[in-house]
Amino acid sequence: MDLFGMLYLDELSHGLANLSMFPYFDMAHYIVSVMALREQPGALDVSRVSPLACWFSSMLYCFGGAVLSGIMLAEPPVAPLSNGTSVLLASIIWYLIFYCPMDVVYSCTALLPLRLVLSGMKEVTRTWKVLGGVTLAQKKYKDSLLVMIAIGWARGAGGGLISNFEQLVRGVWKPETNELLKMSYPTKVTLMGAVLFSLQQTHYLPLQKHHLMLFYTIFIVVNKTRMMLTGSSSSPFAPIESALYKALFTGYSPYAALTGELHKAGTDNSITNRTACCGTTKESKENRSSGQNHSSSPGGGVESSPKAKEASEAEDSKKIN
Amino acid sequence: MDLFGMLYLDELSHGLANLSMFPYFDMAHYIVSVMALREQPGALDVSRVSPLACWFSSMLYCFGGAVLSGIMLAEPPVAPLSNGTSVLLASIIWYLIFYCPMDVVYSCTALLPLRLVLSGMKEVTRTWKVLGGVTLAQKKYKDSLLVMIAIGWARGAGGGLISNFEQLVRGVWKPETNELLKMSYPTKVTLMGAVLFSLQQTHYLPLQKHHLMLFYTIFIVVNKTRMMLTGSSSSPFAPIESALYKALFTGYSPYAALTGELHKAGTDNSITNRTACCGTTKESKENRSSGQNHSSSPGGGVESSPKAKEASEAEDSKKIN
Amino acid sequence: MDLFGMLYLDELSHGLANLSMFPYFDMAHYIVSVMALREQPGALDVSRVSPLACWFSSMLYCFGGAVLSGIMLAEPPVAPLSNGTSVLLASIIWYLIFYCPMDVVYSCTALLPLRLVLSGMKEVTRTWKVLGGVTLAQKKYKDSLLVMIAIGWARGAGGGLISNFEQLVRGVWKPETNELLKMSYPTKVTLMGAVLFSLQQTHYLPLQKHHLMLFYTIFIVVNKTRMMLTGSSSSPFAPIESALYKALFTGYSPYAALTGELHKAGTDNSITNRTACCGTTKESKENRSSGQNHSSSPGGGVESSPKAKEASEAEDSKKIN
């Protein structure tokens, strides 16, 4: 029985691994990406003022991962443009979503059931992109785990990682926030995927490639669906993250007592540690500043910059991917 | 008679195609570029405070196209520096225009007749740069029209396209505006040239290369001269642009009625469609916001960002190229 | 006697040239770099909010030169990550300095005697990095002096030159200042080193490589130690810079009288010419604006931007390297 189950899973994972992304899954990725752009504040204004900037922004949403990993590997960032069919497909979808008469296309795709299916399909492409990045990096840098993780991550979550510069195309500049300072769920799950696939490719993870593809794909699709249905933005990693953070990054510094306390509050409300750090009451902020006074060292003035605080407090920005 | 005319044109275009840009036309390009930098607000201050930042900025004005197309094709952006003669020439011109005793050089070159000749010569180099970019891209990406257009455009209008980062060198940061959001005339005419030369090189445009070079060069030189003499900044493409925009980018969305109306107003005043979009009266802006209320979709909050508005309203910046 | 001195120096310089940077000097470089990051305003906050952004920032401090010179030569900017041992070493040091229990490591390294030794060792790595950049550039671009200087400079002072983008990782954006507008001492001394080593490599400077290495290393170590002990930030080049500036960049323009006067004031106070330009009294600023009114030319409005002034006045930022 167990063997049968294994065999069945094996067949399923082989089937999945041989799935072609090209027409349908890629289309779903383009549709969901362009819709995410359209829902950014100010994006509709830009689409009326300058269709070219809007198109370029859309292409960065659709091909951001390829552009970023290209730059990181010193390959032409213009290369995605050379794949005429993909660019044509993405451009048609961009046109239909932004400028379709009666706004028919956007109205349809924004319906929850269709959106759910499309988002699920988009998540499937993530597996392929992360794996593509990892194997590409492995060809150039044999067994360099860090490079493999970096390229896999960049390829899978590129749109989010370059969001500062994508926004600049639309005339928006928000330096106080970026995906490294405050990771969104897609960026986190892509990083996890990049780590897993890199470990698998270097044989540190004793798992077949197609099995890992199946497990990872099911995990991200189920999670995305759950998050869309419940409307919750809580990450499934919150407890692990919180534990890791507590174990590694608090030390016994003048900060420690404070951040520990903050964390307890954070996990109680089941929000990620990062949000927890931001959710400081005025009182605890005063504690923190008084704590800093203790830590003033001869070498340099340790002051809290108002900008960094702004950064940790800015929570309004909707994330790409 | 017609044949003779053709033959004569043929000779002329062959002569033009064999023209060497090197000493004189390149010099004109450097002079006009460095003068454009000097006339940027704050540039003279920077030239006194940090000659090095001023020199680097000048080099980006002079070689911006080569740098940008280099980055896009993953070729060393430092390569233009390796052409010692060109850099030396550009540096001498930079020095004379910014620091010449008695300001003799700038005073002379700023005289209208000389400036007219120099600007005309600079426009001639545009043809060569666009064609150079297109053929370079064709070598790497055979028949990929989009890459050829992108590289030709980047090489011809590079200084303008990277202006945000060029300004950063001088300590100026204007994220709310860029050449994609609000194209200046040189950027537009270069894009048109890149499209034409790419079509010619892939044989979609049944025209000889040297004929196209002649026609395009005459067009840009005549236009530049006309614009400098009349002081008008109206683009010769305004009617075509407006028609294209109306046909393609208005759709029947809640915006359509409004943008159509705006456009009529825009073309009446013979300003480009982009300016038209910005020249909204307070009343029409209220219309627009009420229009947006209609288009509020279930998927995401469509709000107009104040930044994007700022972007479309900012009209003070003088453009490079 | 003189011969003996020469021989002795020769041996010493050979010994120095064969010194391996790897474990100890590299470690000192990482420690001093990460400490410099920790002492940036707001950096400690970032280290609590997002350890990943903090780690990435630290890596840019440690490997910024390799990343920047990689980008400039179209080599993968991700390459430094492929050197696992160095990244591991730098990461351990990052972890100990930011998160060590009781803050033991930072408290120790911040003690003046230890810090003095570490800073001296870090300066030694500068020689190796500059020379590495120059020889790397020479392999690709034979005899192109400018490229060699640029790459040598980028490799030696990379962290400082990309500081705007490093700050962006931490959510800080200060466009009004950069290392080109207002060079810090490490950036200046690295530029000087890049010029010297480039001249030596192209045989314009009649000196043996290992002799130059010895002299340059001694110069930067002694200078750094002197600056740390006296707490002075005055550059040893101030008089030369001031003389060069006066000779080359003042011309007889409407500005000249003014800047000359400013300079005298500047050198009297034994501060660099750049500071001098900024240290204008209100009165001289009025002079300057009235001077500008004279220079108003037909070609363009020469206005002083408030941003550029801000830039020259901003002096609070602590510099990298």
UniProtKB/TrEMBL annotation, chains A, B, C:
**Principal localisation:** endoplasmic reticulum
Q: What Pfam families would the database entry show?
A: TRIC
Q: Which residues cross the membrane?
A: 20-37, 49-72, 92-118
Q: Which InterPro entries match?
A: TRIC_channel
Q: Which domain of life is it from?
A: Eukaryota
Q: Where in the cell is it found?
A: Endoplasmic reticulum membrane
Q: What is this protein called?
A: Transmembrane protein 38B
